[in-house]
Design brief:
With 249 residues, the chain is an alpha/beta fold. Helix content is 47%, strand content 13%. The longest helix is centred in the middle third of the chain and has 29 residues. Strand 2, helix 2 and strand 3 form a beta-alpha-beta unit. The protein has one domain: Rossmann fold (3-Layer(aba) Sandwich). The two termini are 28 Å apart. The radius of gyration is 17 Å and the shape is globular. Helix 1 packs across helix 9, helix 3 runs parallel beside helix 4 and helix 4 runs parallel beside helix 6. It binds NADP nicotinamide-adenine-dinucleotide phosphate (NAP). NADP nicotinamide-adenine-dinucleotide phosphate binds next to helix 1 and helix 7. The site of NADP nicotinamide-adenine-dinucleotide phosphate has 29 residues, from helix 1 and helix 7.
Length: 249
């Protein structure tokens, strides 16, 4: 049994999908989980109450749009006021907007970049400031298999997820001396709202290319994230953990 007893853990984008599964695993491991999503409309408060009822743990909910630097700053101000520390950040909030190269517009690039890259980087920066005070912490960024091997129609998304790898490696080097570990996971094809929006023929073709013959579940990814967050990974930093059922071996 992995324990995160008493650890303050922020999971961005955690009302659905991988973020929600991760928050649930963290709460079950004894963490003080802070759920996050853009706003109350997405059911943030309902999800908070649901997780609290399911785990018997106190769960917190703080809205902030990862695409808005001011909201990110305010979020960390609230975390400091309430907890005075942060032990774990799961930098999970992300968007996927597909477009063939010829159809890519500056607006599309900006909309993906503001959340997946600028937002992730600002979360990383703010979290590391709080963690520096406590001289320890673990940050897990969400990259993607697409950032490593590419996929037609995903130049923008793929570039944003490759950027996550670059920021993970640089931050791991900067923060290791402060005992702050920075790692990333690179999930393959995971069954969430993000991938359910794909054309069914494309979906089937992708599933055929997976060694284990099935799409991953959000829970599959959450298990790897829990490991990286925990003391079992106390000497692991600067790593990109593929969680893809053998899609890339
Ligand atoms: N699913 C996959 O196959 C897969 C594979 C590789 C990597 N990933 C990465 O894993 C992460 C999670 O993916 P998922 O499939 O779990 O996504 P999802 O099912 O679409 O869930 C996304 C979550 O993020 C929140 N969110 C969206 N935009 C946000 C913003 N601007 N600020 C704050 N929260 C925001 C959503 O809530 P609201 O909409 O209410 O804000 C929701 O809780 C992403 O970074 C994604 O790129 C996913």
């Amino acid at each position: 049994m992995i324990s995160l007893e008493g650890r303050v853990c922020l999971v961005t984008g955690s009302t659905r999908g991988i973020g929600w599964a991760t928050a649930a695993k963290f709460a079950s491991a004894g963490a003080r989980v802070i759920l996050n999503a853009r706003g109350a409309d997405g059911g943030l408060e309902e999800r908070r109450a649901e997780l609290e009822a399911a785990t018997g743990r106190e769960v917190y909910a703080l809205a902030a749009d990862a695409g808005d630097p001011r909201q990110i700053k305010a979020l960390y101000g609230q975390i400091f006021e309430t907890f005075r520390k942060l032990d774990v950040l799961v930098n999970n909030a992300g968007v996927m907007r597909d477009a063939r190269l010829g159809m890519v517009t500056p607006e599309l690039v900006a909309s993906v970049w503001s959340v997946n890259v600028t937002g992730a980087l600002l979360h990383l920066q703010e979290a590391s400031r709080l963690m520096s005070r406590g001289k320890s912490g673990s940050i897990i960024n969400l990259s993607s298999i697409i950032g490593r091997v590419g996929f037609a129609g995903q130049t923008v998304y793929g570039a944003s997820k490759a950027a996550i790898i670059g920021m993970t490696l640089a931050a791991a080097k900067e923060l290791a001396a402060k005992n702050i570990r920075v790692n990333a996971v690179a999930p393959g094809f995971i069954d969430t709202d993000l991938t359910r929006a794909l054309d069914p023929a494309k979906r089937d073709a992708v599933i055929h290319s997976i060694g284990m013959g099935r799409a991953g579940s959000a829970d599959d990814v959450a298990g790897g994230i829990l490991f990286l967050a925990s003391d079992l990974a106390s000497y692991v930093t600067g790593q990109i953990l593929g969680i893809d059922g053998g899609m890339v071996v």
